[in-house]
Amino acid sequence: MENRKRLLIIILAWFITFPEILVRLVYSITIVPITDFMHINYFLSSIILASFYIGYAFANLPFGYLVDKFGYRIVAISLLFLSFLMFLFSYSTTFLEALILMLLMGIVSAPTYIGAIKLVSEGNRSFRGTSIGILNTVGPIALLLSNFIVPSFLEKFDWQLVYLISALITIFISIPVFFIQSRFMKNRKGAVNRKSLIASLVRFFGFWGMWGVSSYLFLLVHQHFELNLIEAGIVSGIFSIGAIISIPITGYVSDLIKRRKEITRLFLLFFFLFLIIYPFLPVIYIYFFTFILGFLAFGYRTPLDAYISEITRGKEATSMGLANMISQPSSIIVPIVLGYIITFTGNIAIAFVSLSIGPFIAMFLIQLLD
Predict the structure, then answer these.
(1) CB proximity list for 163: less than 8 A, separation 6 or greater
(2) Are 59 and 107 a contacting pair, CB within 8 Å?
(3) Residue 94, class by beta-carbon neighbours within 10 Å (0-12 exposed, 13-18 middle, 19+ buried)?
(4) Each residue of 175-210: b (16+ CB within 10 Å) or e?
(5) Spatial distance between the Cα atoms of 279 and 276, rounded to a whole number of angstroms
(6) Among 3, 174, 211, 190, residue whose Cα is nearest residue 75
(7) Cα–chain-centroid distance for residue 129?
(8) Whole-angstrom Cα distance, residue 149 to residue 350?
(9) Within 10 Å of residue 169's Cβ, how many Cβ atoms?
């Protein structure tokens, strides 16, 4: 019975996180028809995506405090607002409308991941890394589904329908969240301290590479390797499969050997190296090495998130809110940087080198946690 309850907690937490991951990843595919529909370039389209991360990043810390204080109803309400904004986004026709709505979607999405981390941490303290690892598969699974389904969907239907369907999915997910009861644990230790700040900076630079390549791999391989939309979707899907396999494995291993920082450091090193060589690979090898890239890109995240959640017990949402507030601006900067490189230089190799800067710096920062 206890194991079944733990599994249900993980599944519910997984679905809580799904909509906010879906909206940002779906945009990276619908960016092509949206750019054409609104008569803008990829640089402006990238700014629309960046506005999501601006709202998401700066809303995380206050929402983390609210989730710790008032419980999961904050998360449920945010999901309802997110579904409404998805619906409105499907009717946007101008750059300004899309920009404002994406910003608001980022703001109301803030409580979802931090609430999910708190939920699995409360329900699975002995295997925190494994639970967070399963939770973190939501990103690559959403990427896998969106890359396999959305490109073919867009061949037959308009991009607006993608967001209408996403809005309906989000409404259904919000309903059971209203019935989750919180456990309130008193802890006088503040959630903001030296360890949490350094770990959040490591997360910032890790996200620079991880979400950068996740969000733009479809477009990068489409242009650089001259793959059509279906082929680019398959490559991005293979990347997702590598990530899906990596995330729970690294979480489970970090629970067994309790060396979360060392595992994080090792994955960041190999992620950095693969980002450098990836654009120079022959097309014939692209599928295999894309799987390895996905495995490495997400491998560091679970042990790092588990480490952050353990810094201040009872204030997991606030600790993760701080980590998201600091780390998410990398997801604001990267779309702008990549959008600029793609629009004004067209050099995809430079784009991959710019992504490798993140894990390179993160490797050195994590030494400060020793």
Answers:
(1) 23, 26, 30, 86, 87, 89, 90
(2) yes
(3) exposed
(4) eebeebebeeeeeeeebeeeebebbbbbbbbbbbbb
(5) 7
(6) 174
(7) 17
(8) 29
(9) 15
Contact by Cβ (8 Å): 138, 18: yes
Find all residues with CB under 8 Å of 262, minimum gap 6, and list them.
Answer: none
Q: Compute the distance between CA of residue 33 and CA of residue 229 in angstroms, rounded to an integer.
A: 12
Q: pLDDT digit of tens for each residue in the chain (370 aa)? A: 566 777 888 889 999 999 988 888 888 888 888 988 998 888 888 889 889 988 988 898 889 888 888 888 999 999 999 999 999 999 999 999 999 999 999 999 999 998 998 888 776 666 788 888 888 888 778 877 887 788 888 888 889 999 999 999 999 999 999 888 766 555 555 667 788 889 999 999 999 999 788 877 887 888 777 778 788 888 888 898 898 899 889 998 998 888 889 999 999 999 999 999 988 888 888 889 999 999 999 999 899 988 888 876 666 777 888 888 888 788 778 877 887 887 888 788 888 888 999 999 999 999 888 7
First CA to last CA across the chain, in angstroms? Answer: 39
Quick one: which of 187, 208, 189 has its CA closest to 326?
A: 208
> What's 180's DSSP letter?
P
Structure tokens given for 23: 């909206």
Q: Cβ distance 338 to 212 under 8 Å?
A: yes
Structure pTM?
0.77
CB 142 within 8 A of CB 24: no
Cα atoms in the 13 Å half-sphere on the side-chain side of 110:
32
Name the phi and psi angles at 41, rounded to 5.
Answer: -100, 175
Q: Answer left, alpha or beta for residue 313, where phi above 0 means left and psi between -120 and 50 means alpha.
A: beta
Neighbours of 11 (CB within 10 A): 12
Structure tokens belonging to residue 233 = 């979707």
Question: Where do we find the tokens 């609210």?
Answer: 66
Q: Using alpha carbons, select from 176, 145, 150, 143 the residue that is nearest to residue 76.
A: 176
